[in-house]
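Record format v2
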Amino acid sequence: MLSAAEWAVVRLSLLVGGTACLAALPVAWGLAWVLARGRFPGKVLLDGIVHLPLVVPPVVTGWMLLLFFGEGGWGGRVLAMLGTSVLFRWTGAAIAAAIMALPLMVRSIRLAIEAVDRRLEEAARTLGASPARVFATITLPLSLPGMLAGLVLGFARSIGEFGATITFVSNVPGETGTLPLAIYAALQQPGGETMVARLAAMSVALSLLALVASEWLARRMGRGLHVL
Amino acid sequence: MSFDPPSFDVEVAIRRGDRLIEAAFASGAGATVLVGRSGAGKTSVLMAVAGLVRPERGHVRVGGRDLTAIPPEQRRAGVVFQEPRLFPHLRVAANLGYAMPAGTDPDATAAMLGIGHLLDRWPRSLSGGEARRVAIGRALLSDPAFLLLDEPLSSLDVDRQEEVMRAIERIRDEVRLPILMVTHDPQEAARIGTTIVRL
C-alpha cells in the first residue's frame, strides 16, 4: 500500500488536476463554441493558438507561463497587487495543467457542439424558444456527454502534466509535487524504485480510469442521441 | 362590407446559390397546398414563412399579420418538418410539452392523433408514422396561429399515410387552423387543399 507521503502526492495530484479542469472548463466551452459556430476572420489562427500547447515542447509553455506570471509579467504584477503569487504554489501547478489540458478539452467539446443537429435548434425556435432557451434546453444537454468526456480527458492530461509544471513552478514537495514530479524525484534518489513503482501504478490506474470514463461518455453520446 | 384578410399572403424571392426562387400567392381559409416538382423550391418557401429562411425581398403575411421582419420564435408557426425533428433527449410527453402554454390539456390532441399511449416513450423507439404524429402534436400544442407542413406523408407506408392524412383533415375542419402544406403528390394536394398553388 501507499505510505502517508505517497497518499499526499495522490491527493495533491487530484486537487491540481480537478482544479485545473474545472477552471479550464468554461474557457474551453467558450472557445469550442466560437470555433464550432463562429465565422470570423482569424478563426484558423485562434484554432492554432488553442492547439499550441499540444505541439509546443511543454518546457516552452512552462517558460512562457513563468514570463507571464513572474515578477515582471502582467499576470505576476496583477497578482502582486492582490498580495499573492502562483509561483512555487499548487495554484501555479493547476494553471500549468489547465493550459496543457485546454486543447484536448476544446477538441472534445467542439466535436460535441458540432454534432448537435442544427435542425433541432431550428425546430425549437419555431416552437417559440428564444436563442437562450434553445441553448439551455437543446444545445447544452445534447452536447453534455461530449463536455463531460472532454472534462475527464482534460483531467487525465492534467494529472500527467510534467514539463510545463516543473519549469513554471518547480518541484516543491507538498505544494507542486504532483505524481509525475514525485516519480521523477524518486527516480533520482538511491533506493527510490519501490516508491516509483507504487506511484507509477497509481498514475496508470488514475489515467486508465479517466480514459475509460471518457470513452464511456463518448459512446453514450453516440448512442441514442440522434435525430432520425 | 368587410373582407377577412387572406390566410396566407406571400410574395418572396429566395436566393439559393445561383437560383432565385420566386413565389407569390394569397389564399383564403382552410388548407393551402404548394405543389410542384421536387427541387422547385417548395420547402424554401415554407421555411421563409416559418422565418428560418430569409427572403431576398418580398413579404410574408398570415391572417393579416406582417411576419416579414419577425424572428421565427415570435411567429407562432406550428412547423412540421419533413423529418420529425423530435428532441432525442426528451420523452414524447416532454416533446409535446416543450412549447405548451401553461394550463393546456394535451390529452384531446394526443387522442386525436392517436399518440396517447406513446407519452412515456423515447423518440428513438417510435416508428416513422408515430414520430410524424408526435411532431404534428408538438406543433399543435404550441398554440400556433397557423400550421406549416412539409411533405407530412413522405416515407410513410400507406396505412400510416391514411392516419396522418385524417389527422390533418381534422385539424383543417375541426381546429380550423390555417394550414400551408407542401407536397409533390397531386392526389394528396387534391384531398387536403382548399387552395392549390403551383410552384
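The longest helix of chain A spans residues 4-37.
Chain A touches chain B through 22 residues (CB under 8 Å).
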